[in-house]
Protein: 3'(2'),5'-bisphosphate nucleotidase CysQ
Amino acid sequence: MLSGAAATIFPAVNDIDLAAALADFAGRLLLDLRRSELLSGKALGEAGDQTANAFLVRAIRHQRPDDGLLSEESVDDRARLDKSRVWIVDPLDGTREYAEGREDWAVHVALAIDGVPVVGAVAEPARATLWRSDTVRLAALHGEPGVMVSRSRPPDVATRTCAQLALAMKPMGSAGAKTMALLRGDALGYIHAGGQYEWDSAAPVAIALAAGLNATRLDGQPLLYNQPDPYMPDLLISRPEWTERLRGALARCGGQAAES
Structure:
């Protein structure tokens, strides 16, 4: 049924229009599921992961059958490693926040070409917001300067770095939601250490780069996608005028890039 729906809803479109339509529609499915109040807690989170993933995988397979695909909620098809074009998706980034009724969760859809995330869409359904790498604009910084960090496990190196630079730490759930907070001007950087996976950052990084933000490993090494092991140990996304200060403080606080 979903493959037929994909054919009806998504006629042949370019890559960014497809990514945006997929993220938006998956987000609507997730909102409908949560509003139904038929499930709650862990069961709701699991159902959300499965529902969004089933739709996205079938739609991408239908629309781009020759491309590779990497999704958090599917068994890794290593055939992707032989592909130049690979879709990298997180059907529900921030499952805990989704199940708790919060706003800071997202749907990520990215296309990496030769390891670089060049197309990205991030839907924030609870905020009725859809971000696209072809139209994104960076807002002016406002409010108290701060750095986005994980809500559940803020890294020690971020705590030390923020203390050294007298910056506030701003905890939030989804990696996509944290990155979009930078684009809104709510923070000047996002520091993550302790491990993520390619699907956590591919779409947010594609959008961040398109908006003129810097996105690298903690020590400035490039972020590479469609790797044999999709684990990504650390991440720094920052406004250009703050990048060197953040990297310098990270280095002084022991924030060298972790081993992959």
Residues 41-63 form the longest helix (23 residues).
